[in-house]
Amino acid sequence: MNIPKSHPRYLSLQTREKLVNGFVNNLVAKEGLLAHGRGEAFDYLIGEKTTKSAKNAIKAAAYMLNQAQNSVISVNGNFAALCPKEIIQLAKTTNSKIEVNLFYSSEKRKKAISKILKKSGAKQVLGMDKKQSAKLKGIDSARRIVDKNGIFSADVVLVPLEDGDRTIALKKAKKKVITFDLNPLSRTAQTADVTIVDNVTRSMKLLVSESKKSGRKVTFDNKKNLKSSILEIRKNLERRAKNA
Ligand code: PTJ
After folding, report:
1. What is the pTM of this model?
2. Which of 23, 150, 161, 205 has the CB geometry, 3.0–4.6 Å to 126, for a possible disulfide?
3. Which CATH superfamily does the domain covering 52-235 fall into?
4. 201-216 confidence digits (pLDDT tens)
5. Would the CB of 176 count as within 6 Å of ligand 1?
6. Which residues of the sequence carry a binding annotation for ATP (predicted)?
């Protein structure tokens, strides 16, 4: 790559490579590559940087995770390929469990994801033992199969790069939901309690650092914050149009 490391495009190209390697190594579903393409387009719209509204959401997410009794980080293929180390760090700092939960589920992918998480330092990965499984109501996809000791009994669940159905089902099951979604208008983004409109590759690092701080109570309104995200996109586009 002939782009300086400090340039946002460098991170973006590096991320693309991680996804492609993740696909080759059975972590990422082919549909995960399409999801990433959608993410890249939205990342361009937000200016490929962590916005003020995303920073607000990160503070609220750290507070929520630190206050939880039984928090779970749900891991899919894209998340495992992009930030395995940060998943483990966040689990440690917030005392959260880690569970593999896939939309395009297969034993082969689940094993590959669990393996990379363990290689990155995870002591326990839930979602692998069929004897421990339970069903979440209101979901048709494989994502309904969850771990009894994990997502099923959690009070706070972090769901990255989601499809909307599970977030709605988790909310119906009275759980607090935190998500990363570059699209502020997606059903997941609109349904979650805390939506971090940012690229997981940038904001997971920030969430880990934020969760290490003792953290005063955060007042946070997700709908209001999402409106700010949309306004930030508009301002970024207007600025670019002026300079075009
Ligand atoms: O690994 P699996 O089988 O569980 O499948 C995972 C995917 C991602 C394929 C599945 O959950 C899916 O199809 O998701 P969607 O419905 O495409 O939603 C993905 C959302 O994440 C979209 O709104 C994208 O804009 C957003 N997104 C993509 N890449 C990133 C992202 N958000 C934050 N950071 C990213 N790097």
Report:
1. 0.96
2. 150
3. Phosphopantoate/pantothenate synthetase (3.40.50.12640)
4. 999 999 999 999 977 7
5. no
6. 16, 38, 181-183, 187-188, 199-200
